[in-house]
Amino acid sequence: MCSNGAHEESADWLRCPICKNKTRSTKIVCGECGGFYGSKVWHSTSKYRRVVWRCNEKYKDDQKCETPTINEDDLKRLFIEAFDLMYSNQSELAKKADYHSKSNR
User: Fold this and answer.
1) Is the pTM for the entire model greater than 0.85?
2) Which of 31, 20, 21 is CA-nearest to residue 70?
3) How far, in Å, CA of 22 to CA of 55, rounded?
4) Residue 52 is assigned to a structural domain of this protein
5) What mean pLDDT comes out for the span 54-72?
């Protein structure tokens, strides 16, 4: 993941100063309207400051998108869980990918 190759086998890149913006560049697609989620800062100048992610199309039209806002800490935790699950099933995923690539020939 990291340009210096230090985090290839773990999710430590989320804490790496070189890689920490990767979560911001990842596209999270809204399940309701198909728009992309983006980060927003709530209470930016108070002690209650926090970063959340929500659909960028949420308030664009008269009919609001009903998908939830996600706290960034929860998003990072869920991403790490998904990454760990995917990494722990790496050999199974590779077999499936190999099977699909052979069947598409």
Assistant:
1) no
2) 31
3) 18
4) yes
5) 87
> How many Cβ atoms are within 10 Å of 37's Cβ, its own excluded?
21
Q: How confident is the model at residue 3 (pLDDT cuts 50, 70, 90)?
A: low
Tell me how far apart the alpha carbons of residues 30 and 5 are, in angstroms, rounded to a whole number: 31
At 49, list the tokens.
């400051």
61: in domain: yes
Q: Write out pLDDT tens, residues 22-57.
A: 555 457 888 888 888 888 999 999 999 999 999 988
pLDDT in tens, 82-105: 888 877 877 777 777 776 666 666
The range of the structural domain enclosing residue 64 comes to 26-94
Total domains in the chain come to 1
- 103 part of a folded domain: no
Q: Which two tokens stand for residue 80?
A: 């790490």
Rounded to whole angstroms, the Cα distance separating 22 from 53 reads: 14
Compute the Cα dihedral for 68, 79, 23, 28 and give only its sign.
negative
- At position 70, the amino acid (one-letter code) is I
**Does residue 33 fall inside a structural domain?**
yes
